Amino acid sequence: MRCVVAPPSTSTTAAAAGRLCFPPRRSSPDCTDLSLVPTHANTPRRRLRATARDAADDAAALMVARAEAGDLDEAQSLWTQLLHSSAAPRLLSVAPRLLRAYARLGRPDEVLLAARELSLRSPSSARAVYPLAVSCLGDAGELASMEAAALEMGRRGLRVGPATGDAFLRAYAAWGTVPQMEAAYRRHKRTTGLVPSAAAIRAVAAAYIARKKYFKLGAFARDAGMERRRDVGTLLWNLYLLSFAANFRMKSLQRVFLEMVGSGPGGGGGVRVRPDLTTFNVRAAAFSKMCMFWDLHLTADHMRRDGVAPDLVTHGCFVDAYVERRLARNLTFAFDRLGHGGAEPVVATDGIVFEAFGKGGFHASSEALMESAGGKRRWTYYKLLGVVYLSKTHRRNQVFWNY
Fold it and tell me: What PANTHER family does the record tag this protein with (predicted)?
């Protein structure tokens, strides 16, 4: 307490009072001390919401983990609890992993049931859940269940978009027959009005190549719009070239290549495309199989003129052709024509070429050698040539046995 002296007064009572005492004044809080200011994050209600959100995330993660581990009963129990709670919106974020796990374990009925229940709980999520279910079922090869999911989409008034159409096409290319795949392609064009994406085009091409349907591969490439599409125009042209190269129709191969680089796609309102490394290697692989050395060297000159660097596949085409004709001693001349013999080996060719022609002997041996070295040695095309072939193949060609 603080004491002050009272002013003089005529009253004896006041005079006797002499000193008056007042309670101490409370100091005002410092405005810079933020710990005294209540925040919304520190309120009990906000803390309870954060705790509930964390618990829901943990339960959803546990549900996905149990499903991926094969414990479907526990996963379904957690799904039911979360679906009928305030954490139901969390299920949409974990649905991709959960539905993919169900499809992988051979439970397409659970995929459809989860899509229905989540769509009933949140009708706005049906637009994302059903395309996801179609994709998961298609990747697992459950074609009948995938069609059932598509029918449910139609009953709910959901439009089949390009992504769903691509999922159908990829599924039938991987798991269906050629007539089924072609029917899915026609339905894709009719329902979406668009041509397939690059991934779906590769899936269809792989299906045709696996069944040696090269004529149908060429027809598909032309129908998919290789003269109109700028995004995958080069891919479709390469597939069109591959349809002739794999059948060794060399005159048609040359004609189509001239159309590609000349007046074909560039004229008449088409989209001009430039040959890439895969384009040249498709031709080089066919020339190598046929041992057409003049065309191989013309291909190397064209690549050098267009600024396209050869890769291990290109060098392998030259090596395999020369070794086939027992001309291994002339390989250094061929590598000099390619002009990148001292570069580090790389493979930049589209893998669809290997599905048609396979890997050449030099290509496969070089990859095995580099893999066994484990990156401890810097390789070049010349070094691979010396280790893989010139040290043994050329010597084998010069040995004469005397009996």
Answer: OS08G0520200 PROTEIN
